[in-house]
Inverse folding.
């Protein structure tokens, strides 16, 4: 694994937690840690470590989405991509690309959205249909 963990900034951790709880559930990911400042997400498995953190920026400045920055999350199936994307849009996320095959690589099935703070995410399945 190349990445140890990822952090997305949020102005409202409670709203972000509600959003990500819905979006990540179809991927088998849940909040494994939460307090008033941070929420950490990891696999829905005993003893799993958080690999995605949502929090206010450490420097105390406003959270902002980086132009050109995107976090891509793995999905085991196209149905997971569809379900997580639908949850994101239903929870107030903004569409950046509906689920479907892309020309990037064989079997590259993806969907794109922005969260409540404007962070861009992708959901990607590379399995055959």
């Amino acid at each position: 694994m190349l990445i140890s963990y990822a952090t997305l900034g949020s102005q409202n951790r409670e709203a972000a937690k509600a959003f990500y709880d819905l979006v990540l559930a179809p991927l088998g990911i849940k909040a494994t840690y939460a307090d008033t400042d941070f929420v950490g997400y990891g696999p829905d498995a005993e003893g799993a470590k958080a690999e995605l953190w949502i929090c206010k920026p450490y420097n105390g400045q406003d959270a902002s989405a980086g132009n050109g920055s995107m976090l891509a999350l793995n999905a085991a199936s196209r149905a997971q991509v569809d379900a997580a994307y639908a949850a994101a849009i239903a929870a107030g996320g903004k569409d950046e690309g509906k689920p479907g095959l892309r020309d990037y690589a064989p079997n590259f099935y993806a969907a794109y959205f922005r969260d409540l703070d404007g962070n861009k995410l992708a959901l990607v399945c590379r399995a055959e249909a």
